[in-house]
Amino acid sequence: MRVGIDARMFGPRVGGGGLGRYVEQLVNHLEDADRKTQYVLWLLNANLEAPRVSEDRFEKRLADIRWYTLREQLFLAPRLDAAHCDLLHFPHWNVPLGIRTPFVVTIHDLILLDEPRSARATTRAPLVYGAKYAAYKVVLAHAIRASRGIIAVSEYAKRSILSHFPDVSPEKISVVYEGVTDLPPTHYPLPPSAPYILHVGNSYPHKNLEMLLKAFVMVHKEHPDVTLVLAGAQDAFSRRLEREAEALGIRDAVRFVANPDDETVSALYRDARAYAFPSRAEGFGLPGLEAMSAGVPVAAAQAGSLPEVYGDAALYFPPHDAAGMAEAMGTLLTDEPIRRQLRERGRERARRYSWRRMAEETRRVYERAMKA
Description:
With about 375 residues, this protein is an alpha/beta fold. Helices cover about 45% and strands about 15% of the residues. Helix 9 (about 235-245) links the parallel strand 9 (about 225-230) and strand 10.
């Protein structure tokens, strides 16, 4: 079997957070989980040399075409079809409409459909945004309906797909959980700082970080020595949060870590007092599991996939309740028995999720798709 993978998002620095990590770990672990299949990887110039895979079973090809662009729709499909693969795997919904090779697709979430606020969050002119959003819905529908199989990263993601596309058979969707990355052990010295609550990830509206800032105002009044660290991409959304922190009078107590690499993230987890995950809609919630793996107690929103993935290893709060969020964070800062319990449960919970298992289950999806 010859399988092609659209690996242009390979690596969190190029592909962006969770998507980049997913592609990276899928490719890395398929090498060990599947020694029979021949793979073709399409990559950007920026990550062409990044995959460390055996040349006898993995062929790397250049497809320096950015995602979510007109060029992607016009020029990517002919390039992929020309490789004469038996099957393609698109790790995200942005499948070219003109693709002819059979394919499977991974759907991480449908937040742009589930969360109207995130769908409208844009720096583009209204007409440009409207055209982009209409194109998203067309491309997404094609990816779901024309695929040989769909990989959903949680039961929550599967339910969301079936809710928006009731004509799709549930048997077509395979739930394949992601894994927890072993971040590099680090001796990276963080600058001396007060105890801090951490959040890692982008600042899109569904991440609910404005509510986190409002909740932190209450926490900071009770614990003036505690700071909040927000680590993620530096963009228009993070700059908006900086202005919000200024308006709330807590700018000096909030630290923004822009575009952190793996070593920095590992160091941030290592020294965090607590981790806060206030997202209103999340397909899987990888950063919270990484925090658990590092022994950091987690407070999370009772929303999206988070209760499914975290189970009894997190302290939950309603995502729209700033006071409840503040109470949960305060508990993690001061209640040592609960801290100890969540640290133990968190490490155990994180061990349930394996990238190797994800790769093995994904390979089985490929095999079923070839028989469809």
